[in-house]
Amino acid sequence: MTRIPHATSGEPNPLRTLTLDRLRCRTSMKWRAYPEDVLPLWVAEMDVPLAEPVVRALTDALALGDTGYPAGTGYAEALAGFAEKRWGWDGPAVERTAIVPDVMLGVVEMLKLVTGPGDPVVVNSPVYPPFYQFVEHMDRRVIEAPLGADLRIDLDTLGQAFRRVTAHGRRRAAFLLCSPHNPTGTVHTAGELAAVAALADRHGVRVVTDEIHAPITAGGVEFVPYLSVPGGENGLSLMSASKAWNLAGLKAALAIAGPAAAADLARLPEEVSHGPSHLGVIAHSAALRDGTVWLDNLLAGLDDNRRLLADLLAEHLPAITYRPAEATYLAWLDCRALGLGDDPAEVFLQRGRVALNSGIPFGTGGAGHVRLNLATSPELLTEGVRRMAAALD
Fold first, then answer.
1. Fewer CB atoms near the end CB (10 Å): N or C, the chain?
2. Is 297 helix (H, G, I), strand (E, B) or coil?
3. CA distance 284 to 79
4. Other Cβ atoms within 10 Å of 53 Cβ, number
5. How far apart are CA 88 and CA 249, in angstroms?
């Protein structure tokens, strides 16, 4: 695949646009879950204005009263165009896609297609907490295959997990892959993904991939779609513009089947397509089709914030281990050397009045860690680290 690198246009960094007073007018979870004296650097919402093409598309739809049910293949076509230009990938063929309400509900529907009640689903911990919540709620069993010390997929550990879940003649098992990985921001290489596909094929494990953070890569880092690697043909992927363009409140995502999984996707119940918001489909399509200039400016701003966070931690909290992520706008911070116990996020909240995600719900490997959302202004990021340091005084 040939990847076109990010190129900034000289337009403003969207992370520098909104003031704290303006952000506190928002009524979404990030800004209303905690009292006003708490600085929220936790849940995956960005402190940015919407991209102008998205605003324009939504405004036009509202002016027309175009608020009915979703229809057509415009979203899939927009994603296909984005994938071709961004990643040199022609894999998301429109006929092998389906709209779903959001990525996690899409994950549930894909797992229903390839597993049954009581079947095992392997995950790489520490990993996005809803992987545990949604899988267990649908009566499947979560089996952990922890990441290695380098925060990458440990193929030996994964192979052991695959052997365990397919032992004794078990016929159905799945691997729920997070790519790029949340919370570590690891971008799996083409070689790693091909090795995963080979392992899955050897053991008869089906791969379902959450690729919601795919557009959010650091400079010089290449995202590789799972379905594009050798052996990925029978995989199922979930993609969305949600994270990259801050559209979580406008529900819409796409399920994509590899060529060998088309028959599986064809069994998706028709009523699942009723769940996405028509306005969500319009917004996501506009972002993918016309929002790349805005995205590139965001990515440049996130690169700046990763460097800033590294500098701030080195100066104020040198005992914290931080590896700037290859993707996402999340930072996974190892706070174990601070001696704050398994849940340092609670200490930072109570003593420093800064909200971070506790590492505990991310599963094995999460204790003693916090996840920090750096998709904010440099000023608020600096204030967040200042508060974290003050919590230790």
1. C
2. helix
3. 9
4. 20
5. 29
Residue with tokens 């998706």: 268
Contacts (Cβ under 8 Å, ≥6 apart) of 372 = 41, 42, 309, 330, 331, 333, 356, 357, 384
Cα angle 341, 130, 103; round to 5 = 145
Angle at the Cα of 289 from the Cα atoms of 48 and 269, rounded to 5 degrees: 100
**3-class SS of residue 123:** strand
pTM beyond 0.90, yes or no? yes
- Which pair of structure tokens corresponds to residue 150? 């380098």
Identify the sign of the CA torsion 255, 260, 263, 264. Answer: negative
Q: What amino acid occupies position 162?
A: F
- Please give the chain's pLDDT, 393 residues, in tens: 444 444 444 568 999 999 999 999 999 999 999 999 999 999 999 999 999 999 999 999 999 999 999 999 999 999 999 999 999 999 889 999 999 999 999 999 999 999 999 999 999 999 999 999 999 999 999 999 999 999 999 999 999 999 999 987 777 999 999 999 999 999 999 999 999 999 999 999 999 999 999 999 999 999 999 999 999 999 999 999 999 999 999 999 999 999 999 999 999 999 999 999 999 999 999 999 999 999 999 999 999 999 999 999 999 999 999 999 999 999 999 999 999 999 999 999 999 999 999 999 999 999 999 999 999 999 999 999 999 999 999
Dihedral of the alpha carbons of 293, 372, 336, 358, in degrees to the nearest 10: -140
Residue 149: burial class (beta carbons within 10 Å; 0-12, 13-18, 19+): exposed
Contacts of 191 (CB under 8 A, 6+ apart): none
Quote the tokens at residue 201: 């094929």
Paired tokens of 390: 């003050």
Alpha carbon distances (Å) from 203 to 134, 145, 237, 280, 311: 24, 15, 20, 38, 45
